[in-house]
């Protein structure tokens, strides 16, 4: 079955160069953690992507769409399925008037920079988010009081039947770190932003201001997956964790950042099991002390005990 699936995936992307076997996922996540993916495929366009998905569905094989791996924890045992990387071929950025269209594989930082060069304001908040547009649309990524739904016009998706469609942002149920994109079986191909004219100098100044705030408050010097827990209603996860006396708490190579308690970092050689055990203990302690349930914002892939 593995050989047949490998050959079918190679045929879908028309070359063996875009299909790898037993690819270590720690090389594709900002956490720098994760075991091997059974197959790792890099389609170069939407047609190849549709063909890869068709192969996975026909084979009954589990699949996962990967962008920059910036909000992802992969298990130590890896993923017994097909990881589909949305990168080159999906990273175009076009500016027309006050509208910016970008592919799902484009980094938010690059999109924000292009918008600034075109003297368009609205994406300053996204300049420091280390993910790609695809994941940001799915999760309605945000920072510093702004989020994707504030500037998205439509999202271009590949539907379950392999057709491309432009879905208006207001139909995607964009909420706090959520949307209906995955629920509907969509795969993001790209999106359009509606921005406003602004001063290039003011836009760049705001981007630098936010970048300085990130450098001073976030543990950017260590691998992590960003904010580990969602913000509970009426609270801040980082403050709850700090007030529970857990700043610097460590399990194996995983640690609650001493710089910002909302971040779990890889101090070096952390296993996925270290991260999950740390998060379990943090959640348990916060629940005991404050009666507040913490929900992980970081997505997981693979089997966790």
Verbal overview:
- By secondary structure, the chain is an alpha+beta fold.
- Helix content is 29%, strand content 26%.
- The protein contains 7 helices and 19 strands.
- The chain has helices at 2-13, 46-59, 108-117, 133-139, 200-217, 237-243, 272-290, and strands at residues 19-24, 36-41, 63-66, 72-74, 79-85, 93-96, 99-103, 120-121, 142-143, 146-147, 152-158, 164-168, 187-194, 196-197, 224-227, 250-251, 254-256, 263-266, 299-301.
- It has a 5-stranded antiparallel beta sheet, with helices on one face.
- A hairpin with a 5-residue loop joins strand 11 (152-158) and strand 12 (164-168).
- Helix 1 (2-13) packs antiparallel against helix 2.
- The longest helix has 19 residues, at 272-290.
- The protein is globular and about 55 Å long.
- The two termini are 27 Å apart.
- The mean pLDDT is 96.
